[in-house]
Amino acid sequence: MLLRFSADMLQQKGKIMLALRPIRILSWLFIFGIFFVPLRAQETPLMIGMELAYPPFEMIDQEGRPAGISVEIGYALGRYLNRPVKIENIPFVGLIPALKTDKIDLIISSMSITKQRSASIDFSNPYLSVGLCLLVSKNSPLSSIAEGNQSKFKFVVKSGTSGEVYARKHLSQAQVVVLDKETSCVMEVVQGKADAFIYDQLSVFQNWKKNPNTTRALLHPFTQEDWGIGIKKGNTALLEQVNQFLKEFKKEGGIKKLGRLFLGPQMAAFEEMGIPFFM
């Protein structure tokens, strides 16, 4: 009787195990489902486009890795969204086309918010406000942008920047040369081939310090413009997330901390000259 009972018990246990198998499978699927979906979301990289040629905002460090203020903002955004970040180094003029064709998710590349750009992409709320000024050749008689709209003056601007937009709108009588690289624009001024380079305050300051014997800087800005994060039109969910991130990041002092980290000496120099710094 004991042997028969044991056999019966084993047989019944087998039936119970078979009956429970679908439940166990469903349980495991449920458990893995809970954890697997978020992991997939976390592993979807946030593709950020920028031109790594504008230190200290976008640059490449000595080990060949992306670095700079914009890079750190991008990494902070990735942590906020719980997504890994992949930086795509793209020429400035190619950033908006890359965004519109889904090669990147957003642009963080010291990009000014303009009407022309806003017609093709959306922008976040501003995270920095900067101004245009002039890097002037040492021997040029040019003393301000107000006198620049004359045929005797020659300006260089970097392609696709707000400096180019300004020159085309306000300097129709002057000579305007458009070049692809900041270094090329600076060299035109250093060699006396152009009277001035229209660019942002920080870059003008840095290039003046590098070339003090051949250039001078007119650092008081003649325009004020905002930088924003570029996002593809229609991607309202990401736009809202980015705006919320920027609100919290600025509230916590993130922008100012990055300014002190990357631009401490420049901030002090601007303060000494009595020129407001933008961070």
Automatic annotation (TrEMBL):
Against SUPFAM superfamilies, the record matches this protein to:
Periplasmic binding protein-like II
Per the database record, which ranges form the Solute-binding protein family 3/N-terminal domain?
Answer: 45-266
**Superkingdom of origin organism:** Bacteria
Instruction: Quote the Pfam families the UniProt record gives.
Output: SBP_bac_3
**UniProt keyword list:** Signal
Q: Which residues form the Ionotropic glutamate receptor C-terminal domain?
A: 45-265
Cellular component terms per the entry's GO annotation: membrane
Extract the GO molecular function terms from the UniProt entry: ligand-gated monoatomic ion channel activity
- What name does the UniProt record give this protein? Uncharacterized protein
Source organism of this protein record? Parachlamydia acanthamoebae
Q: State the organism's lineage.
A: Bacteria, Pseudomonadati, Chlamydiota, Chlamydiia, Parachlamydiales
